[in-house]
Amino acid sequence: MKILVTGGAGYIGSHTCIALLEAGHSVIIADNLCNSRRDTIDKIINIAENEVTFLEIDVTEEQAVDVIFNNYKVDGVIHFAGLKAVGESVDIPLTYYYNNIVSTMILAKACQKYGVNRFVFSSSATVYGDNIVPFVETMDLLPTTNPYGETKAMSERILTDIANANPEFSVALLRYFNPVGAHESGLIGEAPNGIPNNLMPYVTKVAKGKLEKLRVFGNDYPTVDGTGVRDYIHVLDLAEGHVAALDNLKEGAHVYNLGTGQGTSVLELVKAFEEANSIKVPYEIVDRRPGDIASCYADASKAKRELGWTAKHDIITMCRDAWSFEKNYED
Ligand code: NAD
Ligand code: WQD
């Protein structure tokens, strides 16, 4: 199939493009490079030994999106393009609501106009809010604590309503848990601008000596060692999850958790990183970070049952691959 991958130059999108190419699909990337680099496109081509079409386009611009669908026979869309910094979304909510929701609506509209019925959407476990773990797809969603999370819940809702009204429209709403790691080549990975907000990129910067020490946000949560527990998933497994979702689309909108089902605490992750890479990660315990929850991990059984997909990489491999990328990466 010819798949339009919005945000395909980004962290998860680039790994997914490789997985799609390796599975025999062809790929058109639409990305405005607001949080990614053009040279990632060359790296995708090198790793997958296959061509991709790259269009530097803002997918909130309806005309530009129309031109894509008019010029290429698109069989399906994977919509990664979006802004994702939780803290920033509190400071500039309108930018987040506009970018993340308008892009979803414009792409869905183009799909309707051009008869494209396959749509895969990047959602997030954040839509569960502070629910009881493990998170299951059938749970009622709780409010998230930030505009970013709301854009995901609203986009899910919009796509579900469209699918309900147009039964031939097949949508997979993929709720990612905490993606980490990088391609085993060390060529592509997560490269946030400035000081990272997320744990793994912060840890790799500390390991590299770019940051002095990790601040562990709270050790008084009701968890195994008091630090926050998350379901870290290797980005390569996540990428394969998209291929599986695309191959198993069915009429209507269907939600899938993409996680491992395993919780790992902050201190367990630090220990795994030190073990995997024989490198010390100095840390100190500081106050809780506002908006954080104690535990977040998936019930990953639906994706296994319906998509035939399960995550394969363990936390040691995630830490090893995250570090291989960071070691070679020039800011
Ligand atoms: P990323 O920032 O690396 O990739 C997003 C890409 O979208 C970037 O290349 C950016 O340039 C592009 N983009 C943003 N707005 C655009 C627009 N209007 N038009 C065209 N391109 C645009 O982020 P990522 O980690 O790869 O995340 C991909 C998707 O997955 C996002 O929707 C994100 O919200 C979602 N998600 C990410 C995580 C995570 O922890 N990384 C977790 C859950 C969900
Ligand atoms: C993980 C754990 C922190 C940094 C976020 C978004 C979520 C999704 C994934 C997009 C927590 C602790 C972190 C640090 C720390 N993104 N931590 N020191 O908060 O689970 O999820 O990214 O959809 O929506 O909210 O991920 O990596 O920030 O934190 O102690 O410097 O690490 O408290 O327990 P989070 P994270």
Automatic annotation (TrEMBL):
Swiss-Prot/TrEMBL GO biological process terms: galactose metabolic process
Enzyme class name: isomerase
One CC-aspect GO term: cytosol
InterPro entries: Epimerase_deHydtase, NAD(P)-bd_dom_sf, UDP_G4E
CDD domains found in the cross-reference section: UDP_G4E_1_SDR_e
NAD is among the record's keywords: yes
Molecular-function GO terms, alphabetical: UDP-glucose 4-epimerase activity
Keywords per UniProt: Carbohydrate metabolism, Galactose metabolism, Isomerase, NAD
Cofactor names: NAD(+)
Annotated ranges, domain NAD-dependent epimerase/dehydratase: 3-259
Pfam family membership, one: Epimerase
Pathway: Carbohydrate metabolism; galactose metabolism
NCBIfam families (alphabetical): galE (TIGR01179), PRK10675.1 (NF007956)
Family from the record: Belongs to the NAD(P)-dependent epimerase/dehydratase family.
Complex and partners: Homodimer.
Name of the molecule in the record: UDP-glucose 4-epimerase
Species of provenance: Bacillus solimangrovi
